[in-house]
Amino acid sequence: MQREASTTDHYTLLDQQLMSRARRYFAWQARTVKPHLGRRVLETGCGVGNFTRHLTDRDLVVSMDVVEECVERNRSHFARHPNMQFRWLDVQDPSFLDLKSVRADTVVCLNVLEHVRDDRLALKHMHHVLVPGGKAIFLLPAFESLYGPIDANLGHFRRYSKGSWRRMAEEVGFRVAESRYSNPIGFAGWWIGARILHRQTHSAAMIRIFDRFAVPVQARMERWIEPPFGQSIFTVLEKP
């Protein structure tokens, strides 16, 4: 059963529209994710399509979101791409299991699982619908100690540690193929915003500065060096 959109959903939608200005950031995401992508993709939490636009070359993409407005916007925006479908669907909903018929070889879940109340159930559902050998790709907010007002306003139930995340993924039945920190500059910015400035929202000016100056530096650096900490955890799980 679908739920009605909430105030938090509206806030998240506005935040995604603000983040859509960070073109370099999402291009960096795409370069990071694409080496692990298969041809038949389920995207959980498509939002306003910031990452979805990087999936148009796949054979089949089924993108979903719990905010119906996002689904309708994307359905209209990507209407010229017959390989792309959009559904108003919650990954926790039992009807998500029907997507097994898609025979997806990849699930993409970028900055979404923290919004899901029962993340273990969501992970079980993703495991169920993937074909054997399929991959689930995640970008997760790292470090519980960074949790602050912006997290709360965005409807984040949690931030993650690498250890507890790995244990849950393996208990569900996945094999962890890759798990590493990413975006150390973002870590510093989020910590200052949460612990010192107590920011309630993202700043458009800071997003522009981050996207113009920090993203190119980090993108080059992380090709050669794995950061010892970061704002996010990038993870690739495999279904045996």
Give a description of the structure.
By secondary structure, this protein is of the alpha/beta class. The protein has a single domain, classed as Vaccinia Virus protein VP39 (Rossmann fold, 3-Layer(aba) Sandwich). 39% of the residues lie in helices and 21% in strands. The protein has helices at 7-19, 23-33, 68-77, 119-129, 149-153, 162-172, 184-196, 204-222; strands spanning 40-44, 60-65, 84-88, 104-110, 130-141, 175-182, 232-238. The protein has a 7-stranded mixed sheet, with helices on both faces. Helix 2 runs parallel beside helix 8 (204-222). The protein starts with 6 loop residues before the first helix and ends with a strand. The mean pLDDT is 91.
H-E string: HHEEHEEHEHHEHHE
In terms of quaternary structure, the protein is single chain
Number of discrete helical segments? 8
CATH topology: Rossmann fold
Q: Which overall shape is indicated by the principal axes computed on the Cα atoms?
A: globular
Q: Summarize the biggest pleated sheet.
A: 7 strands, mixed
The name of the CATH architecture is: 3-Layer(aba) Sandwich
Low-confidence stretches: none
